[in-house]
Design brief:
The complex is a heterotetramer.
Chain A lengths: L8 H37 L3 H4 L16 H6 L16 H32 L5 H11 L8 H10 L10 H9 L6 H13 L2 H9 L4 H12 L1 H17 L2 H6 L8 H6 L11 H21 L1 H12 L3
Helix pairs in contact in A: 1-14, 4-8, 4-11, 11-15
Chain C lengths: L1 H16 L4 E2 L26 E7 L3 H17 L3 E7 L3 H13 L6 E4 L1 H9 L7 H4 L4 E3 L11 E3 L9 H7 L10 E2 L3 E8 H5 L2 H6 L18 H11 L14 E5 L2 H11 L16 H15 L3 E2 L10 H6 L2 E7 L24 E4 L11 E6 L2 E6 L4 E4 L2 E4 L5 H14 L2 H11 L6 H4 L5 E2 L5 E2 L1 H13 L12 H17 L3 E2 L13 H20 L7 H12 L2
Parallel strand pairs in C: 2-3, 2-4, 9-10, 9-11, 15-19
Antiparallel strand pairs in C: 4-16, 5-6, 7-16, 8-11, 8-12, 8-15, 13-14, 17-18
Chain D lengths: L5 H30 L1 E2 L10 E2 L1 E2 L2 H7 L2 H34 L4 H9 L6 H11 L6 H8 L14 H29 L3 H9 L4 H29 L3 H7 L13 H9 L7 H30 L3
Antiparallel strand pairs in D: 1-3
Helix pairs in contact in D: 1-12, 2-12, 3-7, 3-9, 3-11, 5-10, 7-9, 9-12, 11-12
Classes of the chains: A mainly alpha, B alpha+beta, C alpha/beta, D mainly alpha.
Chain lengths: 309, 360, 553, 302
């Protein structure tokens, strides 16, 4: 039998306090660790070259010392050439493209996902389980395996016309192959399956068609999941860069990440960290704003997506 | 192990900042080696009291002693208690053996001994053959017994049971009730048993404690409390069917219900509440008693007949509900529509003031 | 079973969309086997609207001049529109063209390196230019609105006016045909910190090196590596830059490790690759050479820009970490310390910079030289060699005959004597034509300054003749062109021993010449890292083996 | 169950299946096909050609030192970053669960890396790891540790790997923490009360209650992050740029290896090498998933 340990009120409170301090201390330390790269990125973007290259590094800049030239330089107009009149870092063009691509991809994904999830959740057909297993299995396949063939396919479709590619074609090439997500089908199917059968039978008795039932009953009920899918999927376009670079012929058709790739180097090949960080900040900020706007949905969605799919 | 609670108070603060005094200034001594039933309707604070004893909740005020040890600030793991949860809280990923072994491992009991104790305990609760099953492979009753075994294996000073039978079906409940009683008797551990089921509490407990709104109403041996409730709440809470409560008057040492004399009292004149247990009615076969009614419904089960009497409309005021129940001998063959004269057994009749406090 | 049926069906459906692979027993490559048809040109110069696309990689600084030339050309031929597109870098450019070839979508003409063209030739996508070069057709311009109305345009091109090694580079392909013509050529020169040399005049002269009183080395006779080693003994302080004794931490930076490997292989007559695509680096001379280079690395005689985490050593040359730096002639001005630099970083202040030819092992072709490798002297036969680099322009065969014709005319226009000179003066590249050196045409370099190429070259000569003590006013525009002029002179002095590396596409068992060059660079970098980082397992042998592993299989 | 309505179901599935057929199944099969083609020239005029079928593409990959370097790097990233980040995020999730206040704030902060651009933050990390101007070495100097050359050209392999691991772990925490906190919320609090009664120490509770009860989540996370780690690429690009390492290719990963050949497909068979490498990656992924599946059957408790 354990020895009985009796402590007084004070000891109890102290113990609670220490345990709280340790916990909060640990969490705060991690939180700082998480935030540091963001801070460092923004701080660097506000420094002059001299400040960036000072040793030891400057950890804090007073507001009055902020240099926004790194940002303004990004928007300096190119004097001549193909991109004459456009900014050095065509942030707004990239943003516009990214938002459009993200919107279209998400729209397409939602449509294919809802239809397929409905079929898997609600309808009964031959080979359903096998097909579902096959689809799930494709989630394991590294996407790299597809990329070359897909490029050739896009070519066959006439969307990659090196000389005459239009914006529409570029958009098609960037969106159509990504209008599928087995993961979301799986995720939505789970939600659909939680909707009681009785509702379906009741609707059937009322003479509602399957499609109407999907539209009027299932989709509204599953709305939180669908919203989650929409948000998660829209964020994807922010990170995409291999494919957009591959299937677009012109810089102005590309997405934000592609803009970052053209590493900001000065004429001697030295990295211009200030400009680089300014561009990185510009790319990061919209996402962060989006995140804070939909914080609850995003976090709930991602959390749930992790719980058994 | 005697348990003593002194002025124990637990206040919960809800999200809207409103306060609920779940346990309100409770002082109570639980004698060593007894099985105590902590009884009350849901929300009365009985579970909170149990959790305070366990140390899972922390009192806002007051003290708890196990014998002479004050354990008010002792964390649960150091109080030396065993607790059986309402839904058992068996670790789903551990086998029965592991579940039982777990507390011993935590107490660093020597492995060989721990093993032996586990088997002993499993034998005590009759689950020797199930040691290697997972909880979900057991029936509710079996799970319950594993929970008890786990609570007992470390030979706790106190065993606490939180509504341990509520998840069982009726038959199992009876059986397990006996089991708990047997085990408690064999181990002689001071046991506190929380339930909202008065029948359960009364059948199993050495003593019962009736609680309401965080306050102890009465404590005593089950039959004592039943026979001598200290207030209307206790009287109503104990007994099935429930006690019948009538509005009555005392006039000149006599007790009247609707001008019908039902007994005598030394109390001064005035309005009272009269509680009469269903078994307190005796059918006056000579039909002399003025206390008479037409019977509405008769149901006979075995040797008892329950009479349900709908009160005439003009006598609305005599009862807190529209009917009362009387249990009489089935041999009387009473049928609905019969007019029956009742005599009330004085020991089954309790007088309360309008606030529900017991008079005399 | 069902899922296989399903997959099979999908497969069949999908195959209907995309093209099939033609699997045969013989490869259908036709490089060099095409017939040498004599080009039949139209009677009249076509007057239909012609759009020519031209892909390059130039940034804004150079596209301005290019745009100007395009505008001029379009004025001459009003029915022609030239769309130039920068593909930002050579890899993208090549990748895009390669993709384009498979789907028959390529620009009319493009900039490219020989190995790019080797790939295009393999895919039978690029035009054999001999048909135009040797063509005798002449057109009279009758288009009334044209600025060259009434003039006669000849199709043929006189190759005699081009630097011989450039021509060799552009006709090294199978069959000896021209698939491209030199456009924007460059070579390597060596920048020298004159102030540091000047501080050690006596010691340098004692080592038998010619040096002027103001610290200028010879601009005609290259330093030998023996002299480099001697200089290292004098002005390298391995503990770091020592400004009080005017010593640098390293003697010589070499920007392009790939160039260094290839060029030094030639200087040592060490086999590297050949036009058949054979990888020949696995030989004793190369191994000795790498051993020697490692010794240079070890005693800080030689450094690569990775020593400072840079792609180029020019910044650290300015900063004074290194006293000499070999780099492309196109990047001269990055070596000059100016007011724009952070002054405290300039350990020697704004010192005088001079440019000299790249170091050689021998003074005359075929001489022998002796080097000490790990303390043992070995003798080799050497060659003179300087790297020749810079892109050429080719025309794709898929264009219509009118497009090809105008593309050719445009190409011809770009490499016209005057335009070549202008391009050279503006960009720091070197003229591909000999006549440019003596081009009489004065070219407006700025609104207020106009010169011809000969005068341009004279700027440096005047400066050198005065041993740096010129009396030009600080506002004199010649200061702006001094360093470009210097490297142009140096380049000219090197052009008798320019060498190019053989271009070839990847084969089934070995990589292409582009990969070979890249791996050659890694090889030296790996050796260098092996000398710098204790954790590296690289030495000359392992680095060479890695290179071999990457190039052959 | 309702009657089978085959045709209707396939109609609903059609948009997904058609797209998958074109962009997933066909390229998948095609990759296998390409990988066994001999002297494949996808860009040959008049259509792709090959001279026959062969397994030599795989042989070439397996003889390539760089491929083994990629395997080594990828495995080190996977086997170090995955367990560490799982452990850290478990501890964080458990700590988060135990604090009464500010939970939402901390959760939000911890989630931030999830919603950022891998390249952008990678560049920020690269700069943080800069030998002279970076924050990491400054912080090390506070602890009296000499500056380390993390991502510079002459950085040792382990220094680079260290930087890559730090970035990888940093980027991977968000999702794991979120999943684990969601998982923790799904655990009945009574088990913890029971454990307290059973005198379990905090560590015992963590080890014997929390971890086993979270095991389905841990398994899910370890499979997904293992697969994710095997596909590491953007972290390397973000941190080191196209050089894929402080020295050329020193941090190359399997996916980067695939891309290396993707961009070299003007070369004969280069695409076949890329396909072969992708297929090897595919099999590695499958093997890992299977192993984890088997482990799960033994170790995941319910």
């Amino acid at each position: 039998m354990a020895e009985i340990f009796v402590e007084n009120e004070k000891a109890y409170k102290r113990r609670r306090l220490i345990s709280n301090i340790v916990t909060f201390g640990f969490l705060s330390l991690v939180a700082i660790g998480i935030l540091i790269p963001f801070y460092w990125m923004i701080l660097t973007s506000l420094k002059s070259i001299q400040e960036i290259e000072s040793v030891p590094p400057i950890l804090w800049l007073n507001f009055s010392d902020w240099k926004i030239t790194n940002y303004t330089d990004l928007f300096l107009t190119v004097q001549s050439g193909e991109r004459a009149g456009e900014p050095l870092f065509p942030f707004f063009t990239y943003m516009k493209n990214t938002v459009l691509i993200s919107f279209l991809t998400t729209l397409g994904t939602i449509i294919t996902t809802i239809l397929a999830a409905f079929a898997f959740a609600r309808l009964n057909f031959k080979g359903k389980d096998t097909l579902f297993a096959v689809l799930l299995a494709t989630m394991m396949v590294p996407g790299e395996i597809f990329i070359l063939t897909n490029f050739l396919t896009i070519n066959q479709f006439g969307w990659y016309d090196i000389l005459t590619q239009t914006y529409t074609e570029a958009v098609l090439a960037m969106t159509i192959p990504f209008m599928i997500s087995v993961f979301y089908v799986f995720y939505l199917r789970q939600t659909f399956r939680k909707i009681p059968d009785e509702l379906y039978f009741a609707a059937k008795v009322d003479g509602t068609s399957d499609f109407k039932y999907l539209l009027k009953i299932m989709i509204p009920i599953a709305m939180p999941t669908i919203v989650t899918i929409i948000i998660l999927n829209s964020m994807g376009a922010w990170s995409a860069y291999i494919w957009p670079a591959m299937v677009t012929t012109q810089d102005k058709y590309r997405l934000v990440s592609n803009g970052l790739r053209g590493a900001f180097t000065d004429t001697t090949g030295r990295t211009d960290y200030g400009q680089q960080m300014a561009a990185a900040t510009l790319v990061t900020v919209p996402l962060i704003i989006l995140f804070f706007t939909f914080r609850k949905q995003i976090m709930r969605g991602v959390g749930r997506s992790g719980i058994k799919g | 192990m005697e348990i003593k609670m002194e002025n124990l108070t637990k206040v919960f603060v809800a999200k809207d900042k409103s306060e609920v005094r779940a346990v309100d200034n409770v002082s109570l001594t639980i004698p060593s080696g007894k099985l105590i039933g902590l009884l009350g309707p849901s929300g009365c604070g009985k579970s909170t009291t149990l959790y305070l004893l366990a140390g899972l909740l922390r009192q806002n005020d007051g003290k708890i002693y196990f014998e002479e040890d004050e354990v008010s600030n002792t964390p649960p793991e150091k109080r030396g208690i065993g607790l059986v949860f309402q839904n058992y809280a068996l670790y789903p990923h551990m086998t029965v053996r592991e579940n039982i072994l777990f507390p011993l491992q935590n107490l660093k009991v020597e492995a060989e001994l721990a093993k032996q104790k586990t088997v002993e305990m499993a034998r005590l609760v009759g689950l020797e053959s199930m040691l290697d099953r997972k909880p979900k492979e057991l029936s509710g009753g079996q799970q319950q017994r594993v929970a008890i075994a786990r609570a007992l294996v470390k030979t706790p000073r106190v065993l606490l049971l939180d509504e341990p039978l509520s998840n069982l079906d009726a038959r199992l409940r009876l059986q397990t009730r006996e089991e708990i009683k047997r085990i408690q008797r064999e181990t002689q551990i001071t046991t506190v048993f929380v339930t909202h089921d008065q029948e359960e509490a009364m059948s199993i407990s050495d003593e019962i404690v009736v609680m309401k709104d965080g306050v102890i109403q009465q404590m005593g041996a089950p039959q004592d409390v039943y026979d001598d409730p200290s207030n209307l709440f206790v009287a109503k809470f104990l007994g099935n069917p429930q006690i019948n409560v009538f509005d009555g008057v005392i006039k000149g040492k006599k007790i009247y219900i609707n001008d019908m004399v039902v007994g005598k009292s030394k109390l001064p004149d005035g309005e009272v509440l009269i509680g009469i247990r269903p078994e307190g009615f005796i059918v006056d076969q000579e039909k002399k008693s003025p206390f008479k009614f037409n019977i509405d419904l008769v149901s006979t089960i075995g040797r008892d007949t329950t009479l349900i009497v709908d009160l005439p409309s003009e006598s609305d005021n005599i009862l807190d509900k529209k009917s009362f129940k009387a249990i009489v001998d089935a041999m009387l063959r009473i049928q609905s529509g019969d007019e029956i004269h009742f005599i009330v057994r004085p020991e089954k009749m309790f007088l309360f003031n309008m606030e529900g406090e017991r008079l005399e | 079973m069902k899922k296989f049926v399903l997959l099979l069906v999908t497969f069949v459906i999908a195959l209907a969309f995309a093209g099939c692979v033609n699997v045969g027993t013989t490869a259908s490559t036709t490089a060099g086997t095409q017939e040498t048809t004599t080009l039949q040109l139209a009677e009249e110069l076509p007057d239909e609207e012609v759009e020519i696309t031209f892909w390059h990689i130039y940034g804004t600084d150079k596209t301005a001049l290019l745009d100007q030339m395009i505008a001029e050309f379009e004025a001459m031929y009003p029915n022609v529109t030239i769309t130039d597109t920068s593909q930002t870098d050579y890899n993208t450019l090549r990748e895009k063209i390669n993709m384009g070839i498979s789907v028959d979508q390529v620009p009319t003409m493009a900039l490219g390196y020989p190995d790019h063209f080797a790939g295009y030739i393999e895919a039978d996508a690029v035009l054999k230019l001999d048909d135009y070069i040797n063509n005798t057709t002449e057109y009279e311009i009758t288009n009334s609105s044209s600025s060259i109305f009434g003039e006669t345009v000849t199709i043929g091109l006189d190759l005699d006016d081009f630097v011989a090694s450039y021509l060799e580079e552009n006709s090294q392909y199978e069959g000896g045909y021209y698939y491209s013509l030199p456009f924007s050529k460059s070579t390597e020169t060596m920048a020298v910190n004159v102030d540091v040399l000047k501080a050690h005049l006596t010691e340098i002269r004692a080592a038998g090196i010619t040096i002027s009183d103001n610290g200028f080395l010879s601009h005609d006779v290259p330093l030998t590596y023996a002299q480099i080693e001697a200089l290292a003994d004098i002005i390298v302080d391995t503990n770091g830059t020592n400004t009080t004794t005017s010593k640098c931490e390293y003697l010589l930076n070499y920007d392009s490790s790939g160039n260094m490997f290839i060029n030094m292989s030639r200087q040592w007559n060490a086999p590297y690759t050949n036009t058949d695509g054979e990888i020949l680096i696995d030989n004793d001379t190369t191994k000795s050479m790498l051993q020697y280079v490692q010794d240079l690395f070890l005693n800080n005689t030689l450094a690569l820009p990775i020593a400072w985490d840079q792609s180029y050593g020019s910044t650290n040359f300015k900063y004074g970490d290194v006293c000499m730096s070999v780099g492309s002639t196109a990047g001269v001005n990055y070596n000059i310390p100016t007011d724009a630099d952070t002054q405290e970083n300039l350990q020697f202040g704004q010192f005088q910079v001079d440019f000299v030819p790249v170091p050689q092992f021998v003074a005359t072709e075929g001489d022998s030289f002796t080097v000490s490798i790990d303390g043992t002297d070995s003798t080799f036969t050497g060659s003179l060699s300087a790297v020749q680099q810079g892109p050429n322009i080719g025309i794709f065969s898929s264009a219509s005959s009118a497009e090809k014709l105008y593309a050719w005319l445009f190409l011809k226009y770009l490499i016209e004597t005057d335009n070549t000179a202008k391009w050279a003066m503006n960009t720091g590249y070197l003229p591909a034509r000999l006549s440019s050196y003596s081009s009489e045409a004065a070219i407006d370099l700025t609104a207020s300054y106009s010169t011809n190429y000969a005068d341009f070259l004279q700027i440096a000569k005047d400066f050198w003749d005065a041993d740096g003590e010129v009396t030009w006013a600080t506002t004199d525009v010649r200061w702006n062109y001094l360093y470009s002029s210097m490297v142009a002179n140096i380049a000219q002095s090197q052009n008798t021993y320019y060498q190019y590396d053989p271009a070839f596409a990847a084969g089934t068992n070995s990589a292409g010449s582009a990969t070979a060059r890249v791996e050659a660079g890694y090889c030296l970098e790996n050796i260098y890292i092996g000398t710098l980082a204790s954790g590296s397992s690289y030495n000359p042998n392992t680095a060479l083996n890695t290179m071999l592993n990457q190039l052959t299989w | 169950m309702e009657k089978r309505n085959n045709l209707k179901a396939w109609l609903y599935l059609a948009p997904l299946l058609i797209l998958m057929g074109i962009f997933i199944f066909y390229p998948l099969i095609n990759a296998f096909y390409i990988s066994i083609l001999e002297e494949y020239r996808p860009l040959a005029p008049g259509g792709a050609t090959a001279t026959g079928y062969t397994l030599s593409n795989f042989a070439r990959i397996l003889n390539d030192e760089l491929f083994w370097q990629a395997i080594k790097n990828t495995f080190v990233v996977a086997f170090i970053s995955v367990p560490i980040s799982i452990l850290i995020s478990l501890v964080i999730a458990v700590s988060l669960n135990s604090i009464p206040k500010l939970k939402a704030l901390y959760q939000t902060v911890f989630f931030l890396p999830y919603v950022t651009n891998a390249i952008a933050i990678g560049m920020a990390f690269a700069f943080m790891f800069h030998k002279d101007y970076g924050l990491i070495n400054l912080m090390l100097s506070w602890l009296g540790i000499d500056p380390v050359n993390w991502v510079g050209n002459v950085a040792t392999w382990w220094a680079q790997m260290g930087a890559l691991l730090v970035y990888t772990i940093w980027g991977g925490l968000a999702f794991k923490i979120l999943v684990f906190t969601s998982g923790l919320q799904n655990i009945d609090k009574q088990y913890y009360d029971a454990a307290k009664i059973d005198s379990a120490s905090k560590w015992t509770v963590f080890r014997r209650i929390t971890v086993p009860l979270l095991s389905p989540f841990i398994l899910y996370i370890s499979i997904t992050s293992m697969i994710g780690a095997l596909k590491a690429y953007r972290t390397v690009i973000g941190l080191f740029g196209e050089r894929l390492g402080a020295q050329q290719n020193s941090m190359i990963t399997i996916v980067a290896y695939v891309y290396k050949y993707r961009s070299a497909y003007q070369d004969v068979s280069a695409i076949s090498y890329a396909a072969s490498a992708a297929i090897i990656l595919f099999f590695i992924t499958v093997v890992f998933s299977l192993i984890q599946g088997v482990v799960s059957r033994k170790r995941v408790h319910y």
